[in-house]
Amino acid sequence: MEIAGSCHCGNLAFSLFWPDTDLLPARGCGCSFCVKHGGVWTSNPDASLVARIERPENVARYEFGTKTATFHTCTRCGVVPFVTSAIEGRTYAVVNVNTFDRFDRALLRVTPASFDGEGVGERLARRVRNWIGDVTFVPGGE
User: pTM of the predicted model, to two decimals?
Assistant: First the structure.
């Protein structure tokens, strides 16, 4: 199934190609950044993501804590549609289900998540196992 999503103004957009499933799992991260930004994340290692950035000059890339994840934030509308992590030369990603366009939210299975106490090595290994590993960035007009 293909799921389209974007920030509020459309500067950051994506197409998420999700394996056929009945429900989409989503993690409501309890860290202060995700809580303040409404970040509820989904990923599947069998999914693929095509991310489009219309105006790169209007994107802030924010890292905090371990600095192993990059939050792509639109500076025009303030929304964070996806997060990436570069691990051993490969880009992994999660997407914010709150940025899905025209999606039946009844298909989401949201559970709380906390990664407090997780070491950097454990965190990166979890991302390799669970995050989307097929990530492509294309210019916004394509």
Answer: 0.92
